[in-house]
Structures are given as structure tokens and as C-alpha cells.
Design a protein that fits this description.
By secondary structure, the protein is an alpha/beta fold. It has eleven helices and eleven strands. A hairpin with a 4-residue loop joins strand 5 and strand 6.
Length: about 250
């Protein structure tokens, strides 16, 4: 429910056109929609500034469609479903043609207009090309959350001169997301180059001893660089949301 809808309901209550019981029932019904397999939280946009995001993995196409339709009707902001297969996304798009699918990030979304402050930029750096799917999940998430986002990919420590070529953007960024697998060393290097918040995203990229991202996760958690926070392995979405919240602080 939007602020305008709440105000309109309160005016009806104040004018006597709505009883106290009806007003309470209206608020309860409008905040959570029961679909049988899901309870859609329509109040989340008012509480947190962005509608509930659908985690697509493990859900059927029919379930994602029903939740997405519900959110699209009630939300002013963009609607997202993460970790969507191409087949599942195509099923939803047949019935919801305004939805767009990004195959790299695996995000299905309906984009709504958002005001973006060019003076507050989120920068995303990936260590390697193999890290791009996770980095793209972070990029598209931050974009849909209403941020100006810039990316530089494949600038890891194996050729550190590639990173130094982007020093101007590192200095200009308001928040930096670093996405890296293998040994995750890029996070510490970037953390030592900036006074801005750094969000580290370990990826499951790497040979055997990388342990599907555990090595990068532990390296990032153990970073000697101050001002670094770490999200879960391959969690580009979480990094994009956190970067957006930091970026919108004024």
C-alpha cells in the first residue's frame, strides 16, 4: 500500500465513511496477500523503499508469475525475481510481457522509473571474467534500486596494472563492490586504495583448493584492509542491496 492510499483511507475513516473495524481490516488485507503458497508482503516497499524481491530458485514458473503479478499491481517500484532460469523466465514473460530477462545475472524484472543521483555512484569491480555473472547480479540489482552504477571487469591482482587504470573511478565512487573468486585478493587491494565502504563478494570460481568460494570468503573476512564488509558466496544481490542502502544515506 502506498502512502497516498493510506492517507485516502484515513480520510474516509475521519469523515465517517469507514468504521474503525473496516479500517483495521483494510490495513491488514492490504499489507499481506495470501496466495496459498506465499504471503506477499505489500508493505515492504513502504518500510524499506523497495518492493519484496522474489527468489526464483526452487519456485515453479506459476508461483513466480503469481507473486510477480501481485507485486506489479501494488508496487510503484521495480519488481524483481532473482536466480531465474531462461525457461522459467520465458514462461512468466508469455503471461507478463512487460517483464524483461537478463540471462547473465539471471534476473527477471519489470523496471519502473527511478531518480538517480549521478554524484553518488556505485562502482563494481570484478577480479576476472568468470566472476561477471555474480557482478552483473549486483549491478542490475543496484540499478533497479535507483543507483548510478559503473563497472570494470577483469581487473584482478594477476595483472594489477589493470586495476590502477581505474583509480579515478575508485576515487569518485561512493560505494565499491568487489567481486572475486580464487584467493579473493582484490578486496584487500581495493580496500587499501579508498576511504569509501567496500562490499566484498566471494564467488565460487576457482580450482579445487578454492573450495567453491570458501577460500575467497575466508580471505575477505580476514582482510587487513579496514572498512570492508563481506556478503555470502555468489550473493551479488545482497551486495547490490547493501550498496544501495549505503548510497542513499545522505
Amino acid at each position: 500500500m502506498t502512502d497516498a492510499e493510506i492517507v485516502a483511507m484515513l480520510r474516509r475513516y475521519k469523515d465517517g465513511r469507514l468504521s474503525e473495524r473496516e479500517a483495521v481490516a483494510y490495513l491488514e488485507k492490504s499489507s499481506v496477500e495470501e496466495l496459498g503458497f506465499a504471503e506477499v508482503d505489500h508493505a515492504r516497499e513502504r518500510r524499506q523503499g523497495f518492493p519484496e524481491v522474489i527468489y526464483g530458485e526452487g519456485k515453479t514458473g506459476e508461483q513466480v508469475l503469481a507473486i510477480m503479478e501481485s507485486l506489479a499491481k501494488s508496487s510503484a517500484g521495480s519488481v524483481m525475481a532473482t536466480r531465474m532460469s531462461a525457461e522459467k523466465a520465458a514462461f512468466v514473460q508469455e503471461r507478463l510481457p512487460e517483464a524483461e530477462y537478463d540471462a547473465v545475472s539471471r534476473i527477471l524484472y519489470i523496471e519502473r522509473p527511478a531518480r538517480r543521483d549521478a554524484a553518488h555512484m556505485v562502482l563494481i569491480l570484478s577480479a576476472g571474467t568468470s566472476d561477471i555473472p555474480v557482478a552483473e547480479e549486483a549491478r542490475l540489482t543496484a540499478h533497479l534500486y535507483g543507483n548510478v552504477v559503473k563497472v570494470h571487469y577483469d581487473c584482478g591482482v594477476a595483472g594489477i596494472h589493470r586495476l590502477f587504470a581505474h583509480r579515478a573511478d575508485i576515487e569518485a565512487a561512493n560505494v565499491i563492490i568487489v567481486v572475486a573468486g580464487m584467493e579473493g585478493a582484490l578486496t584487500s587491494v581495493v580496500g587499501g586504495l579508498t576511504d569509501k565502504p567496500v562490499i566484498a563478494v566471494p564467488t565460487s570460481v576457482g580450482y579445487g583448493a578454492a573450495f567453491h568460494g570458501v577460500t575467497a570468503l575466508l580471505a575477505m573476512l580476514s582482510s587487513c584492509a579496514a572498512g570492508v564488509s563481506v556478503v555470502n558466496i555468489d550473493n551479488g544481490f545482497g551486495a547490490g542491496v547493501l550498496a544501495s542502502r549505503i548510497n542513499h544515506l545522505r
